[in-house]
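Page 42, continued from yesterday. The earlier attempt failed because a stray header line got pasted into the input along with the sequence. Redoing it now with the clean sequence only.
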Amino acid sequence: MIERAALLGGGVIGGGWAARLLLAGVDVALYDPSPDAGRVVEQMLGNARRALRRLTLAPLPAEGTLTLAGDPEAAVAAVQFVQESAPEREGLKRELLARASRAAPPEAIFASSTSGLLPSRLAADMVHPERFTVGHPFNPVYLLPLVEVCGGERTTPETVARAAEIYASLGMRPLVLRREVDAFIADRLMEALWREALWLVADDIATVEEIDDAIRFGAGLRWSFMGTFLTYRIAGGEKGMRHFIAQFGPALQLPWTKLTDVPELTEELLDKLVAQSDAQAGGATTRSLERLRDDCLIAVMQGLRANDYAAGASVATWERLLHARAVAPAARDDEAPLRLHRVDVPPEWIDYNGHVHESRYLQAFGDTTDALLRHLGFALDGGDVYMTVETHLGHLGQARAGERLHVTTQVLGHDEKRVHVFHSLYRTDDDALLATAEQMLLHVAAGSGRAAPAAPAVLARVARIAAAHAALPRPERAGRSVALRH
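This time it went through. C-alpha cells are written below.
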C-alpha cells in the first residue's frame, strides 16, 4: 500500500483518481493548470464519499490529504506513485511525463490513464522509462474496479507487477495486457459498439435513447457479470461454444454491420446527436446524472457481491482489505472495558424522523464485534471465527447525522466455545449512552461449519480480557428480557 501519490491532471479521470486514492487513505499532490481543478476534485470527492458509503459497510480508512501543486515537479517530489491523466494529446503527455520523471524519486512508479496511446511512445522522453506503464481506468474511477495495465517496450516486468499490486491495494481489478496494442482491450470493444451506434443514428434507424434501451434492458445486463464469451457459451446450450458458433457463426458473413466504415461526423449528424441526447437527459444536471449512475452501479455491484462474482468479487476482495487494514483505537487486553470501534454518523443512516435508523445500531454493534475478533487475532478471511448466535438490543437515546460515536465492550463470561459480551454505544461529545447490545458468540470451525473449541492462543487471550473485566460492575441491562411488567 502506498502512502503518497501525485496526480498530473485533475479533470474527470484525474478527479476520479484523486477520490479513489484519498478515500483509500493516500496523501495526494495534484498538478493541473486549470484554476477550477481544486473545485472539480472536491465535487468528485463528495460524489465518491456518497457512493462508497452506499457500496460497503466495511470501515474506510482515514482520508488522505489533498495538496495542490504549482507545477509537475513540485507534485511528484517525495511520492511513491504518479498517475498522469492529462488530455489525450501525445505531445502534451510526453512533455508532462518527461518533466515529472526528472523530478520524481527514481523508485517512483509512473502510470498514464491514456485510453489508447502506446506506452512506448509516451515514455520516449522520460528518465527511467522502465518504471512507466499504462493504468487505464474507467469512469467513475472511484467506483469501477477495472484498470488495464499495459507496459511498453522498455517497461520492466517488475514495474507492471508493482503497478498491478498498487491498483489492487486500492480495491481495483488490474487486467494486465500480454503485449502493447493501440486502445488496449476494453476501448477496442467499446469503439466497435460506438461506431455501429453512430451509424444507426446517422441512418435514422434508431434514436440515441432507443439504442441505449437496447443495451440497458438486454445484453448490457448480462455483460455486467458474464461478458461476451461466457454469454455465448451458455447460448450454445449443453453443447457449449462449438454449437453456438456452428449455429450462429454463418451470420458473421452477413452484411449486418458497418464496423469497417466510420460515419462522417457532419454538423447535421452532430446536431441530431446533441438534440436527441438533450431530450434523453430530460433537463437533468450532470451532477444528478452522475449520482444516478453511481447508485445504479452500486445496486448492480452489491447484487453481484452477494454472489461473489464478477465486479461483486472485486468489492468483496476490497472489503476484506479494508477490514484487514482497519485501525481500531489502541486497546490492551487489560483495558476495562475495551474500546475498539468508533464511527461518525453518515447522512444515509438517518431515517424519516431525523434520527439514526434502528438497523444502523445493529450495524455499529456488528462492526464492534468484528473489531473484537480482530483484537483476538482472527483474520476474518473465511477461516475459524466466532459467530454471533444471539443479540439483545436496548435503545436508550437518539443519534443524528455528523455525531461521533464510540462503543465499549465488556466480556461477561466465556468457555472453550463461547464468549458472552456486552457492548455499550456512546455519543463521544457528551458520553451519553445511546444503545446497548448483549451478545453470545459461538466459535465455529471453518471446515465443518460446526461449533468447536477455539485455538489455545485465542482462549488464553479471552481469559486475560475476562479476568481484567471481572472487576467491573455488571452492566445494569445485562440479562434483560422483553416483557410487560406491572
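Notes: The mean pLDDT is 92.
Reminder to self: strip header lines before submitting.
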